[in-house]
Write a structure and sequence with these properties.
By secondary structure, this protein is of the alpha/beta class. It folds into two domains: 3-69 and 184-365, 3-Layer(aba) Sandwich (Rossmann fold), CATH 3.40.50; 73-168, 3-Layer(aba) Sandwich (Rossmann fold), CATH 3.40.50. Helices cover 41% and strands 14% of the residues. It contains 15 helices and eleven strands. It has helices at 21-32, 46-52, 73-85, 102-114, 128-135, 148-162, 177-186, 188-194, 212-225, 242-249, 275-280, 290-301, 318-328, 333-339, 358-365, and strands at 3-6, 42-44, 56-61, 94-98, 117-122, 140-143, 165-166, 203-207, 231-237, 284-288, 346-351. The protein has a seven-stranded mixed beta sheet with strand order 1-10-9-8-11-3-2, sandwiched between helices. It has a four-stranded parallel beta sheet with strand order 6-5-4-7, sandwiched between helices. The chain is globular. The structure holds pyridoxal-5'-phosphate (PLP). Pyridoxal-5'-phosphate (PLP) binds at residues 70, 72, 100, 102-103, 169, 207-214, 264-265, 315-316, 352-353.
Length: 367
């Protein structure tokens, strides 16, 4: 069921922002030294803004990030750089991870570029196109017979036995260095966007699976703008509301999960390392139904005159779907009011992936 959580401490800037200022400086130095890695577009969608009843709508479009069709390579490239610089990786390691698809493909691509071997574990039921895309990067792919969280446990056990280096985008007790590097890498997306907007947005909506990108975004905005930061909203599927349930409970809890077209956001547990940011630098969490995302995928594919067509997958369209839900549905009225959303608002959403599951994309958008 769709639901919302509103923080009692709106626009707080906590001491612990999870990603350190030094790490952010490291990310800037790394990506500024790689100008061949081109920025993704920031679209200004004027007609869509008017339709939804907001003043300005900015969409950061990650559907073609560094030659892949999802944002995840931003975090993975930086994490590989850090792993090499801190000698965690050794000379020619075997790297491994479990993934719903996009993180695994990014790890496989980055490993291939370095000539490293790579093992990717995918949960049962992963779309065949995702399996093929990762195998196409030269990875050794295992589709487990269990879900996402249990696949992580499986890869960790196998990695311990075999001596593989785990490059996970989620954390667990005793393992948070690599996920912090990955989240730090994601912040480059915000730095890029900032060079393209005239005035900073006053409401930001970012979708979450385990919450890595949410943490990166909320942390970056809080560090950059302090108490003047935008109102920050995390969005996720109502079918797997781990951010919402954890925020409501006041501590990380395990959520029930069901089928959703937001396959990469179907997580029962948050990454525990993000907790201080979720608790104190996120102002609201909204859990939305698949139909919101279907609307967003179609609307982006068939734009109004003057707007670009944008390819957006099930998880990619979540933040735009959430904006539509917030603007139109009573469940989200308190969030709409607290965010001050209306005709003068400047809203930033992120399209985090393109058609990573082409069969799903065709079934929703047609063609
Ligand atoms: C397309 C897409 N969007 C958003 C996310 C959410 O990222 P996180 O799990 O860090 O919250 C993912 C995660 O895999 C993803 O693949």
């Amino acid at each position: 069921m769709e639901a919302a959580w509103l923080s009692p401490r709106v626009r707080r800037v906590p001491d612990d922002l999870v990603i350190s200022a030094e790490e952010l400086a490291g990310v800037e130095a790394f990506y500024r030294s790689r100008p061949e890695l081109r920025a993704t577009p920031l679209h200004h969608l004027a007609s869509l803004a008017a339709e939804l009843g907001v003043g300005e709508l900015l969409l950061k479009d990650e559907s073609s990030r560094f030659g892949l069709n999802a944002f995840k390579i931003l975090g993975v490239s930086y994490a590989f750089h850090r792993a090499m610089a801190s000698h965690v990786a050794g000379d020619s390691p075997v790297v491994a991870c479990a993934s719903a698809g996009n993180h695994g493909r990014a790890v496989a691509r980055a490993a291939r570029e370095l000539g490293w071997s790579v093992r990717i574990y995918l949960p049962a039921g992963t779309a065949p196109a995702r399996v093929e895309a990762i195998a196409g990067e030269g990875a050794d792919v295992t589709v487990t017979d269990v879900g996402y969280e249990a696949s992580i446990r499986q890869v960790v056990l196998d990695a311990e036995r075999e001596g593989w280096l785990v490059i996970s985008d989620t954390s667990w007790p005793g393992y948070d260095e690599v996920p912090r590097w990955i989240m730090a890498g994601y912040t480059w997306m915000m730095t890029e966007a900032e060079t393209r907007w005239a005035v900073r947005p006053d409401v930001v909506i970012v979708q979450g699976g385990v919450g890595g990108l949410v943490c990166a975004g909320a942390s970056w905005f809080a560090r950059r703008y302090g108490v003047e930061r935008p109102f920050f909203i995390a969005a996720e599927p109502a079918a797997a509301p781990c951010l919402l349930e954890s925020a409501k409970a006041g501590e990380p809890v395990v959520a029930e999960e069901h089928q959703t077209i937001m396959a990469c956001l179907k997580c029962a547990e948050i990454s525990p390392v993000i907790w201080p940011v979720l608790a104190d630098a996120v102002d609201a969490v909204v859990a939305i139904g698949d139909e919101r995302v279907e609307w967003a995928m179609r609307r982006l594919a068939k734009p109004a005159p003057g707007e670009p067509a944008v390819v957006s997958g099930g998880s990619g369209a979540c933040s735009l779907g959430a904006l539509q839900a917030i603007m139109t549905h009573d469940t989200f009225g308190a969030v709409r009011a607290a965010a001050g959303l209306g005709l003068t608002s400047r809203v930033l959403v992120v399209n985090t992936e393109g058609a990573t599951d082409p069969a799903l994309y065709r079934s929703v958008v047609g063609g």
